[in-house]
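Reply to dn_fold:

You asked what the input looked like. This is it:
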Amino acid sequence: MRDTGCMTGEREKELMSAAAMLLDARRTNMPIEDLPAAVRPTTLDEAYFIQDRLAIAYGEIGGWKVGAPTAEATPMFAPMPLAWIASNDALLGGRHRFRGLEAEIAFLIGKDLPPRDKAYSREEVVAAIASCHPAIEVIESGLVDPLKAEKLSMIADLQMHGAFVYGAAVTDWEKIDFSKEHVTLAVDGVVRVDRTGSNTSGDLMRLLPWLANEGAARTHGLKAGQWVTTGSWTGLSLGMAGSAVDVNFSTAGEVHLRFE
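and this is what came back:
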């Protein structure tokens, strides 16, 4: 849980109200345009405070989504509820409304990385990775269109996270040159996106040491068995009820899902 620092009790109540609104919008599939101005987060810390309250409502955390819009940008991250994580060829049920789709590269943590004073090196974090997998993040929101709402409202709403589906582990993943990795995303057999080296964070491997170090105050350290998914390669595509989704990486394998 994030330290609320100098947040007043009154402000905490307002942000908890915002969390309740987003939770209700998601659970009822009755989205709102945006959070009311009085309870809308005004800082990233406030957005993360709301995220953490949503995560509590959904139970155990199964991992974290982390990404950055550019190679120079500071990453942002959000919890992924364990209940929303599924393996390849998953059939995703009726709670999905927005059905956004992003192809990603994800890592399964094999060794605990507890918070510590000395920063973890990149090599230490890589050594703690059990395996690398292709993945699809499903984008969902309690907001009608999260990309048109205030950005901090979108971030507060679990950073649009809705589900995570992972494919088979990749052999010798450490040899992959992610700057040259090619990916396609298809919906119902039609290729929507065809790109190479397109992860927006630049060097996606920078995200894991950042999460292990800068994110530790909030994550309480990365834990064996948790997933870390490292941002979109394909931008946002939309599926529909009944859609079949196929993601293929040139080296990192393939992953599939279908919506009910």
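The longest strand covers residues 129-139.
Hope that clears it up.
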